[in-house]
Design goal:
Elements lengths: L7 H6 L20 H10 L2 H5 L2 H14 L5 E2 L6 H5 L4 E4 L3 E4 L6 H5 L6 H4 L1 H14 L5 E6 L1 H10 L7 H9 L1 H25 L3 E6 L7 H17 L4 E2 L2 E2 L2 E5 L6 H5 L5 E3 L6 H8 L4 E6 L8 H15 L5 E5 L9 H15 L4
Parallel strand pairs: 1-4, 4-5, 5-8, 8-9, 9-10, 10-11
Antiparallel strand pairs: 2-3, 6-7
The chain binds coproporphyrinogen III.
Coproporphyrinogen III (CP3) binds next to strand 3.
Length: 353
């Protein structure tokens, strides 16, 4: 069994001791990097980039060539799954993602089927395999999926909007229809994440970007319950290695105890939660990932250094912290700020281990 040269991420996700706090960033590959924009231009579009394993591998590795990151995350998007379900994904400049055939009719909802990842998401699995080969066990590779509820938001709305009018109306008027979508999504997410694990993903993360827009009872019933079921169906080990899972509900700070009881190994938190408080609430059960405000990266090297120091101090001494932002890297981030952050986390965190 090949051993990882840098296994700090896997160890921290499992709350095992490490010499320093590992760091990776959500959206670490993206538009803030000029080399990403160049590769995307070569691909022709964002979606063509996702669907080309050679180019997707190239952009996955770009941030690792610049910064001493402790993990890679496969370059893809959460919306490739609804695309594989036949909803038709389009990305238009400045408008964000759109699904061409959103779910509005009961008949369409009843006809939804779980896609076979080996067939309809083969390009993602090929990218996972190629990235693993290129990484040569230097750092681990993270696979990911949207949560069943967050995917349902896009599938019903057709895109992201601020009020989630259609999906919330369905939730209150026709809950059995939304439950049916979530049921299918849950099986699709489980199959997709397991296929990524079998192709070489060494940790997996579920992005619940929109769960935080729900009320407490609705969050438990329509988002958390399905994430828990998806986690129950995941392979916990592959080729003798533990595969840690990360669950991130943006805006989920009020529900940390329930999230920590879902069966995940690590809970991702956004910057609205104090990470020290989060640790005292759930730190005996799970590791924590987060939680610097991505806007700090826009404010210059001194702010970045101070921001890193503050998050590390708030978490305090001991194992079980993976440094990250509280959400994705902004496209307006100067790459030099990411370099400052990664180095600051590596240097300053040694005192806490
Ligand atoms: O983290 C990584 O580096 C891996 C790649 C990754 C992308 N999207 C690439 C991407 C990951 C993990 C995602 C997840 C994703 N995608 C989420 C969950 C996380 C979150 O941000 O809340 C969501 C909600 C999406 C859906 C999505 N994709 C939106 C809303 C947008 C438009 C907003 C934007 O930033 O443009 C995208 C596009 C997208 N996904 C880009 C990238 C690099 C930018 C596309 C471009 O190059 O034009």
């Amino acid at each position: 069994m090949p051993k990882l040269k840098n296994d700090t991420l896997i160890r921290a996700l499992l709350r095992q001791p490490t010499p320093y706090t590992p760091i990776w960033l959500m959206r670490q590959a993206g538009r803030y990097l000029p080399e990403y924009n160049a590769t995307r231009a070569r691909a022709g579009s964002f979606l063509a980039l996702c669907k080309n394993p050679d180019l997707a591998t190239e952009v996955t590795l770009q941030p690792l060539a610049r910064f001493a990151l402790d993990a890679a995350i496969v370059f893809s998007d959460i919306l490739t799954l609804p695309d594989a379900m036949g909803l038709g994904l389009r990305f238009t400049e400045g408008e964000g993602p759109r699904l061409e055939r959103p779910l509005r009719e009961e008949r369409e909802i009843r006809n939804l089927v779980v896609p076979d990842p080996d067939q309809h998401l083969r390009y993602v699995l090929d990218t996972v395999r190629q990235v693993r080969k290129a990484l040569a066990d230097e750092v681990p590779l993270i696979g990911f999926s949207g949560s069943p509820f967050t995917l349902a938001c896009y599938m019903v709305e057709g895109g992201a909007n601020s009020d989630f009018r259609n999906v919330k109306t369905m939730l209150y008027n026709r809950p059995e229809l939304l439950h049916h979508i979530l049921e299918v999504n849950c099986r699709a997410v489980t199959a997709y994440l397991n296929a990524q694990i079998e192709s070489g993903a060494q940790a997996v993360m579920m992005f619940d970007t929109w769960g935080g827009t729900l009320g407490t009872a609705e969050y438990r019933e329509f988002s958390l319950a399905y994430m828990r079921r998806a986690l129950e169906g995941l392979k916990r080990e592959h080729r003798g290695e533990r595969i840690p899972s990360i669950l991130f509900t943006k805006g989920g700070g009020a529900w940390l105890e329930a999230i920590a009881a879902s069966g995940c190994d690590t809970v991702g938190i956004d910057w609205t939660v104090d990470i020290g408080t989060a640790r005292s609430r759930i730190g005996v059960r799970v590791a924590l990932q987060g939680n610097l405000d991505p806007a700090v990266l826009l404010a210059g090297p001194k702010a970045v250094h101070n921001g890193a120091a503050a998050v590390l101090a708030a978490f305090g001494h001991g194992a079980g912290h993976v440094f990250n932002l509280g959400h994705g890297v902004s496209q307006f981030t100067p790459p030099e700020s990411v370099a400052v952050l990664v180095d600051a986390v590596h240097d300053l965190s040694r005192a806490y281990h």
